[in-house]
Amino acid sequence: MLVLLPGAALLVVAILYVLLEEALPVFTIPVTAIVIIIGIKLSPSPKISGGQAPTGSDPLIVDRAILGASIYQLFFFDTRLVLKRLATAKTTIFSLVLLAFAGFLIDGLIGALAGVTAGYAIQEYTAQARRVKSPLTNSSLKVGPNDVEVPYDDLEKVELDGNKLVLFSKRGITRLGMSRGYGAAMAPRLTTIFQKKFKETGVSPFDRRFSQTE
What we know:
By secondary structure, the protein is an alpha+beta fold. The protein has two domains: about 5-45 and about 90-130, no CATH class; about 50-85 and about 135-214, PH-domain like, CATH 2.30.29. It is built from six helices and nine strands. It has helices spanning about 5-20, 30-40, 90-105, 110-130, 180-195, 205-214, and strands spanning about 50, 60-65, 70-75, 80-85, 150, 155-160, 165-170, 170-175, 200. The strands form two sheets. The chain has a five-stranded antiparallel sheet. Strands 8-7-6-9 form a four-stranded mixed sheet, covered by helices on one side. A hairpin with a 2-residue loop joins strand 2 (about 60-65) and strand 3. Helix 1 (about 5-20) packs antiparallel against helix 2 (about 30-40) and helix 3 packs antiparallel against helix 4. It is elongated and about 65 Å long. The relative contact order is 0.14.
């Protein structure tokens, strides 16, 4: 809906612009039409799944987490965490800036908004197309050149600070951003996985209620 609704709203604005100003926004109309098509094709996010069965047979899977300018899918197995890269800065930032700039040059402000919406739609489509589907096991998930593998033995501590997953290792501190409600939903399962290494901080009661209603 975050893709479909903005695209539909901008298409309506573009049509009104044609009727009122008698000028055709040649960038906005086709771009917003493409955004709507992408929004229709996108399926609902799986968010957080797994982690309920015995250790290793049903990994905890988080559909998206942000590290730097890249989007990752997280897999918590019995001995390792795998960060599967879904989209890079090229799709998350470059496409937004490029399309917004092109839209502004052609159609002004409405074109810039259409470009931003299109860049976000491309990002979401790319992430969904690359997302690994269940079921899978520790041995069936392969780590690619753009992915990150973190053995649990390398971790000194794991924290959930609100909706940020913080990994402490000898190499330093890594912070992964997640959507609202993810931290509260993950906390019980991360306690089972990491035991004494895990610490939960900053998860509000509202986030707990929010995660339970999702």
